[in-house]
Amino acid sequence: MTPFIPLIFLLALGLAVAPSSGDQGAELGGSETLKILGLGESLEQLQDKLKQAVIGQPLSITFAVLSQICSKIVDLGLVRPKTIPDMSRMNFLLRTDECHNVSIPLTEAERLWEAPGFYQDRPTVIFITGWRSTISESNSAPVAKAYNCRNDTNFVLLDAANFIDTLYSWSALNTDAIGEYVAKALLKLNRNYVVENVYVVGHSLGAQIAGSTGRHFRQLSGGATLARVTGLDPANPCFYDGNDLEGVRSGDARFVDIIHSNPGILGTAKVVGDADFFVEGLFAFKSGCEGLNDISCSHNRAVEYFAETVFRTNTNNFLGKRCDRYANLWFRRSCSDTRTVMGYDASASDLGIFYVDANAEEPFGQNANKNSFTSSNSQCGAC
Questions:
Q1: Cβ contacts of 367 within 8 Å, gap of 6 or more
Q2: Can you tell me which family this protein belongs to (predicted)?
Q3: Domains along the chain with CATH numbers
Q4: What are phi and psi of 308, to 5 degrees?
């Protein structure tokens, strides 16, 4: 896990030096800022404190401290994103059945309705990727392939330009504005269609954008609510511990379901949705994720789990056990075998917190039928 320490310091340093780009923070020196926050007398002390936490404590404690620091700084307005989201630079990318990509600016979202390859009689899923992702480098491909295999849904990818491809703290601060712009774009489409047929799915910071989209759509539309928002291991650092960065949560849509795969590290360990599925419970590292990339592998597993369930033959691969108490997620104790479906076919009538078992490799879902299972390597949906 040592190679992951630079990322932690990158995040911490970004939070410490970012005030120089904001008005209020610019009036304060680094030591004054840290004193206000109760974090020590100097940046060096903060870094030493974080280094000690990394070396001497479980990573979950390190990230809990880091998230609290970030939330506190954000609430005080001492950090401002260097790159401010610009709606005119963001696009919807429609993937057609023929695997062509049709780019529609958010500012002209009404063009999506008549775009070649968009079917008005199909539902639409909008997939939003996470931090440091771009159109050419993201984890959207497995999800796009699975939906293409289904051939019954319009698949749209959000191109957020470089607004979540910057320092983490700045990217986190941009999530609310990006979600607002997506909501404004949806308002340009048929209202009834959007409310009944648009489904927003996001991974990591993308999950936070998805939640923001739902909240802003409700506010801007005068109370209309999206049908469903799914958060795939919603980003943990900077969210939920403060007031400014709310994070995806129950109420952002009529049904909000969450798949947790790296709880307490890169993904939140908090129960935030109407249905929260904790794969292998509260253990942060997933089966099959080993070595230097165990953290990022576990964080990305939520996308792989979800993508597996999108294939028609795999919708019931993951079945959850409802837990009455959060602590029971550690070892499945007192969790009822309700066989609650996780993923694509999750039901808005099955609410609560759930423990879900998983395999170390495909099929990840332990309820998969190996005779009918569709692998991510299959030709179905391939371009």
A1: 316, 317, 318, 319
A2: Belongs to the AB hydrolase superfamily. Lipase family.
A3: 2-75 (no CATH), 87-356 (3.40.50.1820)
A4: -60, -40
Q: Which residues of 160-169 are buried (b: 16+ CB within 10 A; e: fewer)?
A: bbebbebbbb
Read off φ and ψ for residue 19, nearest 5 degrees: -55, -20
Instruction: Please name the amino acid found at residue 71.
Output: S
What is the reported pLDDT for 46? 44
230 forms beta bridges with 201, 257
* Residue given tokens 């980003």 in the structure block: 235
pLDDT given for residue 78 in this prediction: 59
In this structure, the number of other CB atoms found within 10 A of the CB of residue 122 comes to 14
Digit-coded pLDDT (tens) for 133-178:
766 667 899 999 999 999 999 999 999 877 887 778 788 889 999 9
Q: Map tokens 């249905």 to a residue.
A: 275
Give whole-number Cα distances, 340 to 171, 285, 351, in Å: 34, 23, 9
d(CA 335, CA 348): 20
Residue 128's DSSP bridge partners are 202
Tokens of 127: 């997939």
Q: What is the token pair recorded at 246? A: 């709310």
158: closest CA among 235, 213, 97, 226?
A: 213
CB 210 within 8 A of CB 136: no
Q: What is the C-alpha separation between 230 and 317, in angstroms, rounded?
A: 17
Task: Report residue 282 as tokens.
Answer: 């509260």
CA 338 to chain centre: 26
For the record, the structure tokens of 273 come out as: 């949705």
* Structure confidence at residue 64 (pLDDT): 73
Return the SS3 of 338: strand
pLDDT digits (tens, 9 = 90+) for 43-68: 444 445 444 544 445 666 667 767 77
Give the pair of three-digit tokens for residue 109: 């979202």
